[in-house]
């Protein structure tokens, strides 16, 4: 029986649900995709760029409607190589669009990047970086996440995890877009040369989590 | 700069967002109520009742659509006195309907109880309790949460907190219905006499959290 006179002794157990994970596609729960799940109607407006040492953080503003809930876009950053894996496949790069809603829930939309055509939408994001760590430079750009993703003719993975950098906050709702976008080798090398080392967190255990695969 | 060679040393800071809280109505963020936020179309079917010492847990099955997401109803339990407070007001009792979705998010719908008319919908829930702690008895009942709440002519408070009993799991989405339902004094006394002590957790700090008030 719970002792309500000694509440300070109650145990707190938090499931260790961290990110990134290797998504095993045969283990996913299949659901039908519905375009109302992720609505990016307005362009995100970027206002500055922060040199975080082994990452660049592009701070911005914008609104997404995710599963009917209004989320404020906060920032975009990159990882080399990609952090999430699909059946063990590692892409050269992954983009993280971080959002938060008024009650504090965090949603990250993850986009894989592969080498291919020059990416016009991301053009502005591959130049003019602050040179010194912790330096924040004004940065003006607009980006349509809809335009970047294009028609979602593959699918989306959805699961509950964490931020992949400290403080590794949990209960982050991840939306990992299956179809990779392309950048040119010049674009990728331009941003990669800024980083001496990889900045991808190690793969974390899935444990008892379920990953939904929304099929299109 | 983050050291990706020593990821095991990365700090994990989790905001201490616990429940219950005292909701200060002047601090809430007002939003317009939309009936699609909480959809309880089907009756919940209860299958057994578990004596947890200082609580009774009614296990059941059912589906709720909460902010467009499908949640499975899991169990109902009671607290004496109510755990949440509205501007310091304490109701004699609070009902918690616990739900979880496929990716592991938890939602609790909280209903305050005050003394008044006999509550027909809850009639079955105030009799035939297992006598011994940890005993689980078959229990067959149906309950419409829509019917119990009635027309939502007041409003709903919504915030991010925790379970109020160990393991005090965080990131629980709370929906606290403003308008109390009534039970008769016979109903309340019948269930209260089973418990020797109060089973309400202490009020927790709101910290930097925002509480939404959905006005009807």
Automatic annotation (TrEMBL), chains A, B:
GO biological process: one-carbon metabolic process
Cited Pfam families: Carb_anhydrase
InterPro entries reported in the protein's UniProt record: Alpha_CA_prokaryot-like, CA_dom, CA_dom_sf, Carbonic_anhydrase_a-class
Location of the Alpha-carbonic anhydrase domain: 1-216
Protein origin, superkingdom: Bacteria
GO molecular function terms attached to this record: carbonate dehydratase activity; zinc ion binding
PANTHER family referenced in this protein's UniProt entry, alphabetically: CARBONIC ANHYDRASE, CARBONIC ANHYDRASE XA-RELATED
Protein name (record): Carbonate dehydratase
């Amino acid at each position: 029986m719970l002792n309500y006179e000694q509440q300070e002794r109650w145990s707190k157990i938090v499931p260790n649900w961290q990110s990134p994970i290797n998504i095993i596609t045969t283990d996913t729960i299949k659901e039908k995709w519905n375009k109302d799940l992720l609505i990016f109607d307005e362009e995100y407006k970027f206002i500055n760029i922060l040199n975080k040492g082994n990452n660049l953080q592009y701070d911005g503003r914008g609104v997404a409607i995710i599963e009917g809930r209004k989320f404020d876009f906060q920032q975009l950053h990159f990882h080399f190589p990609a952090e999430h894996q699909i059946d063990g496949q590692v892409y050269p790069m992954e983009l993280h669009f971080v959002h938060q809603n008024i009650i504090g829930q965090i949603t990250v939309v993850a986009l894989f990047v592969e080498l291919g055509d020059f990416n016009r939408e991301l053009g502005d994001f591959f130049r003019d970086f602050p040179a010194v760590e912790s330096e924040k430079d004004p940065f003006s750009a607009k980006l349509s996440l809809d335009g970047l993703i294009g028609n979602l003719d593959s699918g989306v993975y959805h699961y509950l995890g964490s931020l992949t950098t400290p403080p590794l906050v949990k209960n982050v709702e991840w939306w990992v877009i299956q179809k990779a976008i392309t950048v040119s080798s010049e674009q990728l090398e331009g941003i990669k040369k800024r980083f001496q080392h990889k900045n991808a967190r190690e793969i974390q255990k899935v444990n008892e989590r379920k990953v939904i695969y929304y099929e299109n």
